């Protein structure tokens, strides 16, 4: 009889983890659709950035209220999940509270889990109120309608349900311990659930066992569902924040990458000795690739990982000068669009036996409009604000590069500016020979 | 008065067999824009006063390519960069000072991998070091107790983490330095960057320079200090359209220092 539940548990566990592994594989495949980018230099600095920004949540506390609440939920969530280790062992081997041999330390662990669980519930309720009742401006942009809005709330409900199940399980366990029920040896401290326990003890042993077992099963099944929900949610950042910050751009924010493909062309143009008919060297096929980006495959893999890591928090958008003054641009939308398009491309590949079938769509125009792209002042406020070191600006600039270098589709005034630079080395129509006139004025 | 300034060019110095200690990169705005030319001259006066051995490129200088790059024209940017680097390297330039944060950022960060490696400083950093070395002294006098706020240029502050140099200079004037609601790392853009200076803004409900000017007005400052010719223009326009030109002045930090010394 006992074996049945152990086998069921093992199957549930394998299904949950297996499905997650499949999603993870798809995620990595999609990120790899991006262009190559070498970013493994300065390793000590990378580890440090990851520890400070992802683990230490350094950039979250810039906004103290949300920051501290987020840290509680995050710490609570991670620490309470230590409990999952015990649940898995118990489930597989038919034991009960197998770690209780730790004695006083076990009591301490369970006691602190309970307090954290309560804090998590309180924080999540405040988050829900901020999102749904106070309606902070950054949660109300057009890109937050529909699924993103439901997603944010679903996660909050999920967290409350998981925490309540955890406390209920403990409460029933504690009641059973008090009643001296078989299998329920004295173990753990229950600073929060003891109050709940007082309420349910009168239900009697068999009902309590039913409650305890149900809460136990729902809790672990809930965690597995949550794990698999991540891939479809902005909550992927729980996992991706780590690699995403490790692979951050560590250069000064003002520094934009120099395109190597352009460098070779410019050198050729400027070098009088160069043979314009020279055959491209081997391994130079990259040069044939188009300049800039019109679709997700033209972005590099870090930019694509950025898109999956976005928490949709809107800190970028609320700091963006264009967005603040009512322009269409929202850096958060740039990231969400990139992810949506990447998912679309990924599904297309899945549906067509591993090869992308032309679908007549692209990131430019079908998702991100030119109006958005041209509204950016390249001020880096979004990059600075992002709690997981995402760089929306780099995508904007790569798309501008496509518009200008592949399509000559810059706004007219910018074309004038560029013609001026080309002709007289200044963005205005002044003669370079007059450049020093100020000396004598 | 203005004919009293000394501005040698690299070509002139080289002909005399001299080498300057530092090259002053004037930039397009500093060379051509009427408002920015005043900043250029104020800075030169301070350089002259401190007897700095400097030179400019004059007609051999060309746009760094910053607005082209940020508009997406990497090709034009790299062409500008390479021809500037050729000139700079032919004069064996080691150190560059510039009063434009866009030139500063581009030459400092984006030229090295194209073959141009120099020590690059913003003019506020350079002035601070002149003060530290005692080559220049500033007396508060005129600006004592005045409320001055500093607008962080994106490419100086967030872009390159230079927040202190301009502020320390303002404090040297014995002025009361006040901060705007968003400042330093979270400073609000003036609206000019990313080539926006050269085009109309997209449709919205406000101009960015107006939003920033309002923040400056909220700080109750009498003077908005800037460290960038483009921010200067944007904020001057902002103050004008708010009809506050008589009560709020927009001045470059170099102008404040030069004016305090009656240069
Ligand atoms: S860099 Fe562009 S998108 Fe980012 S905050 Fe500035 S204007 Fe907005
Ligand atoms: S890009 Fe960063 S700041 Fe913007 S919504 Fe995503 S996680 Fe938040």
TrEMBL record, chain A:
It comes from Galbibacter marinus. It comes from the Bacteria. Residues 301-332, 366-396 form the 4Fe-4S ferredoxin-type domain. It holds the Pfam family Fer4_9. InterPro entries: 4Fe4S_Fe-S-bd, 4Fe4S_Fe_S_CS, HdrC_iron-sulfur_subunit, Helical_ferredxn, NarG-like_sf. Keywords: 4Fe-4S, Iron, Iron-sulfur, Membrane, Metal-binding, Oxidoreductase, Transmembrane, Transmembrane helix. Signal peptide: none annotated. PANTHER family: IRON-SULFUR-BINDING OXIDOREDUCTASE FADF-RELATED (PTHR43255:SF1), IRON-SULFUR-BINDING OXIDOREDUCTASE FADF-RELATED-RELATED (PTHR43255). GO terms for molecular function: 4 iron, 4 sulfur cluster binding; metal ion binding; oxidoreductase activity. GO terms for cellular component: plasma membrane. PROSITE patterns: 4FE4S_FER_1, 4FE4S_FER_2. The keyword Transcription does not apply. SUPFAM superfamilies: alpha-helical ferredoxin, Respiratory nitrate reductase 1 gamma chain. The chain crosses the membrane at residues 6-24, 65-89, 109-129, 154-172, 214-232. The keyword Secreted does not apply. This is Iron-sulfur protein.
TrEMBL record, chain B:
Coiled coil: none annotated. Residues 22-108, 148-235 form the Cysteine-rich domain. It comes from the Bacteria. It holds the Pfam family CCG. GO terms for molecular function: 4 iron, 4 sulfur cluster binding; metal ion binding; oxidoreductase activity. The keyword Hydrolase does not apply. Keywords: 4Fe-4S, Iron, Iron-sulfur, Metal-binding, Oxidoreductase. One of its GO terms (cellular component) is plasma membrane. PANTHER family: IRON-SULFUR-BINDING OXIDOREDUCTASE FADF-RELATED, IRON-SULFUR-BINDING OXIDOREDUCTASE FADF-RELATED-RELATED. This is Cysteine-rich domain-containing protein. It comes from Galbibacter marinus.
């Amino acid at each position: 009889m006992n074996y049945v539940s152990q086998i069921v548990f093992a199957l549930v566990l394998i299904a949950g983890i297996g499905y997650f592994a499949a999603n993870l594989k798809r995620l990595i495949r999609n990120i790899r659709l991006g262009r190559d980018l070498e970013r493994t230099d300065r390793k000590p600095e990378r580890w440090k950035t990851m520890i400070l920004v992802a683990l230490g949540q350094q950039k979250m506390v810039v906004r103290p209220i949300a920051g501290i609440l987020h840290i509680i939920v995050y710490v609570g969530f991670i620490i309470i999940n230590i409990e999952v280790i015990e649940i898995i062992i118990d489930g597989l081997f038919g034991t009960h509270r197998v770690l209780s041999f730790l004695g006083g330390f076990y009591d301490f662990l369970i006691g602190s889990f309970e307090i954290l669980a309560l804090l998590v519930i309180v924080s999540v309720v405040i988050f829900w109120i901020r999102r749904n009742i106070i309606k902070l401006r950054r949660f109300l942009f057009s890109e937050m309608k529909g699924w993103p809005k439901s997603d944010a709330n679903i996660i909050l409900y999920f967290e409350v349900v998981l925490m309540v199940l955890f406390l209920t399980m403990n409460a029933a366990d504690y009641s059973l311990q008090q009643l001296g029920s078989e299998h329920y040896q004295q173990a753990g401290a229950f600073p929060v659930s003891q109050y709940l326990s007082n309420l349910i003890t009168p239900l009697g042993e068999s009902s309590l066992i039913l409650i305890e077992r149900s809460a136990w099963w729902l809790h672990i099944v809930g965690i597995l569902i949550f794990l698999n929900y991540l891939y479809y949610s902005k909550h992927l950042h729980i996992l991706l924040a780590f690699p995403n910050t490790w692979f951050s751009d560590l250069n000064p924010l003002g520094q934009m990458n120099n395109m190597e493909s352009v460098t070779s062309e410019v050198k050729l143009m400027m070098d009088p000795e160069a043979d314009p008919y020279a055959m491209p060297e081997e391994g130079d096929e990259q040069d044939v690739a188009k300049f800039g980006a019109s679709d997700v495959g033209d972005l590099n893999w870090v930019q694509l990982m950025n898109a999956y890591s976005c928490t949709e928090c809107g800190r970028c958008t609320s700091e963006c000068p264009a967005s603040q003054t009512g322009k269409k641009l929202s850096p958060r939308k740039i990231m969400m669009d990139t992810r949506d398009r990447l998912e679309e491309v990924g599904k297309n590949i899945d549906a067509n036996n591993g090869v992308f079938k032309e679908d007549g769509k692209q990131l430019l125009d079908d998702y991100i409009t030119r109006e958005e792209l041209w509204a950016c002042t390249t001020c880096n406020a979004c990059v600075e604000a992002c709690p997981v070191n995402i760089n929306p600006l780099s995508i904007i600039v790569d798309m501008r590069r496509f518009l200008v270098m592949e399509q000559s589709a810059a706004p007219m005034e910018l074309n004038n500016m560029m013609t001026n630079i080309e002709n007289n080395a200044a963005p205005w129509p002044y003669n370079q020979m007059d450049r020093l006139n100020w000396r004598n004025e | 008065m203005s004919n009293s300034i000394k501005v040698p060019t690299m070509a002139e110095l080289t002909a005399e067999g001299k080498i300057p200690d530092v090259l002053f990169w004037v930039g397009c705005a500093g060379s051509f824009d009427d408002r920015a030319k005043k900043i250029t001259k104020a800075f030169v006066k301070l350089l002259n006063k401190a007897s700095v051995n400097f030179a400019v490129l004059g007609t051999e200088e060309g746009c760094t390519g910053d607005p082209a790059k940020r508009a997406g024209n990497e090709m034009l940017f790299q062409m500008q960069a390479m021809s500037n680097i050729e000139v700079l390297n032919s004069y064996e330039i080691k150190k560059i000072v510039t009063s434009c944060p866009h030139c500063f950022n581009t030459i400092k960060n984006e030229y090295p991998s194209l073959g141009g490696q120099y020590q690059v400083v913003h003019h506020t950093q350079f002035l601070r070091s002149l003060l530290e070395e005692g080559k220049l002294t500033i007396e508060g006098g005129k600006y004592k107790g005045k409320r001055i706020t500093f607008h962080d240029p994106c490419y100086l502050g967030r872009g390159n983490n230079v927040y202190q140099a301009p502020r320390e200079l303002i404090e040297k004037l014995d002025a009361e330095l006040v901060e705007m609601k968003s400042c330093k790392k979270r400073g609000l853009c003036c609206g000019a960057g990313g080539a926006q200076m050269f085009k109309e803004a997209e449709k919205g409900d406000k101009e960015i320079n107006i939003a920033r000017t309002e923040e400056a007005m909220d700080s109750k400052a009498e003077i908005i200090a800037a460290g960038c010719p483009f921010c200067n223009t944007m904020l001057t326009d902002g103050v004008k359209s708010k009809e506050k030109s008589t009560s709020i002045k927009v001045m470059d930090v170099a102008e404040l220092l030069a004016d305090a010394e009656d240069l």
